Amino acid sequence: MNFDQDKLIDMALAARSNAYTPYSKFKVGASILLKDGTYITGCNVENSSYGLCICAERNALFQMIAKGYTKEDAVAFCIVGQTDEPISPCGACRQVMEELLKPNTPVVLTNLERKVKVMTVAELLPYSFSGDSLKWWI
Ligand SMILES: O=c1ccn([C@H]2C[C@H](O)[C@@H](CO)O2)c(=O)[nH]1
Ligand SMILES: [Zn+2]
Question: What is the active site of this protein (predicted)?
Answer without folding.
Answer: 57
